[in-house]
Amino acid sequence: MLTPRVPVAREGYPFIGFAAFCTLTAALLGFTIPALILLATTTFILCFFRDPERFTPPLENALISPADGKVLFVKQVDDDKFTGGRACKISIFMNIFNVHVNRIPISSTVEKVIYTPGKFYSADSEKGALQNEYCATILTTANGSTIACVQVAGLIARRIVCWLEASDSVTCGRRFGLIRFGSRVDLYLPPDTDISVQPGQKVRAGETVLGHLL
């Protein structure tokens, strides 16, 4: 028998608990307005850390979105930092109202995880893309393709969480981390990847097909 799963990311428990405690304290002390403000804050934090179940389509060689949000762009780039060559880059921006749990885009093996401290500019800006804190997970698929999934901190994001380690075998759609409070995820794919999304399109982690490896 399956154990029911709480649909909230465990990293959110301390924030939710603290906000709820402050709300209850204000209410018991009779501070009505502060209690209402704190209740709204608690509700927002609870919604931010929500972690709903997703149903990943069982499609061969499909690349599934690692994040909820909006596709900022799809373009060919020279990637010396992560994949070591020409790559197709897809950038997905998550606002504060999106689900922030990130998921594996394709079944693969983790080659390495690279964390680099940096700035906290707006995640959808060019300056943010170049200078913000990030955590890059380099993946190798069964057919030898190299993919980089890069979590990028944003203007108010101050904590990137990644649960993966080198040599982990991961399945498509598996949860692998999150970013606290608004950010982006960049995918670096083989340049000949058949892309099926466009800039401005809304995507869902673990469900939306971004394209297929050839």
Task: Indicate the CATH class of the largest domain.
Answer: Mainly Beta
CATH topology of the largest domain: Glucose Permease (Domain IIA)
Q: What structural class do helix, strand and pairing data support?
A: alpha+beta
Separation, N- and C-terminal Cα atoms: 39 Å
Poorly predicted ranges = none
For the secondary structure, the number of strands is 14
Outline:
By secondary structure, the protein is an alpha+beta fold. It has helices at residues 13-28, 32-48, 126-131, and strands at residues 62-64, 69-79, 85-94, 101-103, 108-116, 134-140, 146-153, 159-162, 169-170, 175-180, 183-189, 194-195, 202-203, 209-212. An 8-stranded antiparallel β-sheet has the order 9-5-6-7-11-3-2-13, with no helix packed on it.
Give a structural overview.
The protein has 3 helices and 14 strands. 18% of the residues lie in helices and 36% in strands. The protein is of the alpha+beta class and 214 residues long. It folds into 2 domains: 10-48; 62-212, Glucose Permease (Domain IIA). A hairpin with a 5-residue loop joins strand 6 (134-140) and strand 7. Helix 1 (13-28) packs antiparallel against helix 2.
Secondary structure elements and pairings:
Elements: H1 13-28, H2 32-48, E1 62-64, E2 69-79, E3 85-94, E4 101-103, E5 108-116, H3 126-131, E6 134-140, E7 146-153, E8 159-162, E9 169-170, E10 175-180, E11 183-189, E12 194-195, E13 202-203, E14 209-212
Antiparallel strand pairs: 1-14, 2-3, 2-13, 3-11, 4-10, 5-6, 5-9, 6-7, 7-11, 8-10, 12-14
Helix pairs in contact: 1-2
